[in-house]
Design brief:
Layout: H1 11-20, H2 29-45, E1 49-51, H3 55-67, H4 69-79, H5 95-115, H6 132-136, H7 146-158, E2 208-210
Antiparallel strand pairs: 1-2
Helix pairs in contact: 2-3, 2-5, 5-7
């Protein structure tokens, strides 16, 4: 099995990515690639429902599923042992769905902080997956603030017993571009939706994935 740290997206896929996003500098590709690997690593760490907090990484995810599904399935089987399913959430989620989406974003925050040795409740910086869009200046990218995410994490941990379990074996995503996991407004700044494992995933970007 190939080590995820050494894994590289083949050049022909980046050529296709360039066709979809011609205005983005290729110097941004390593950031997107590492972000996608972080997302996979979170699923490898703990199979659960995770939001996709980056529109740029989500764009790569869409490309893989839509144009390179054989490669995508091979990659998922190699690193996860199952195919990470990408499924949109409702455009007008119910209150319960919003709560679940918020939990999924917190799951991603927790996992991303774990990957980089950060305290999810008192991190001194954003983990890479949460800062990529802003760093590469992705159009309509998702931007997060440390105080916002720390507060959301603390609040969710306090009420975790009231939140339904999000562990499942598939994954899906939410198509809301709002960063506020609890709503689908059109703001692209520090909030986020989320992703669910197995059957559904939401994300600040527009998708998410999960596992069981």
């Amino acid at each position: 099995m190939q080590d995820l740290a050494d894994f590289k997206i083949p050049n022909h896929i980046w050529i296709a990515f360039k066709q979809r996003h011609p205005n983005l500098s290729p110097t941004s590709y390593p950031w997107i690639e590492e972000g996608f690997k972080d997302y996979l690593a979170i699923h490898m760490w703990r199979r659960n429902a995770y939001a996709m907090p980056s529109n740029s990484v989500d764009a790569l995810w869409h490309l893989l599923i839509e144009e390179f599904d054989d490669f995508y399935q091979f990659m998922c089987q190699n690193f996860l042992g199952y195919k990470l399913i990408h499924k949109p959430h409702e455009k007008q989620p119910t209150t319960a769905q919003k709560t679940l989406q918020k939990r999924q974003l917190v799951n991603t925050w927790h996992g991303a902080c774990h990957l980089h040795g950060l305290n999810p409740q008192d991190s001194q910086r954003l983990p890479r997956l949460f800062q990529i869009d802003e760093h590469i200046r992705w159009e309509q990218g998702l931007m997060f603030s440390l105080p916002f995410m720390a507060a959301m994490y603390a609040q969710t941990m306090q009420t975790t017993s009231d939140i339904p379990s999000t562990t499942s074996s598939g994954s899906s995503c939410s198509s809301s571009t709002a960063c506020s996991g609890s709503s689908s407004d059109s703001s692209h700044s520090h909030h986020g939706s989320d992703s669910s494992s197995d059957s559904s995933c939401s994300s600040c970007s527009s998708c998410g994935g999960g596992g069981d």
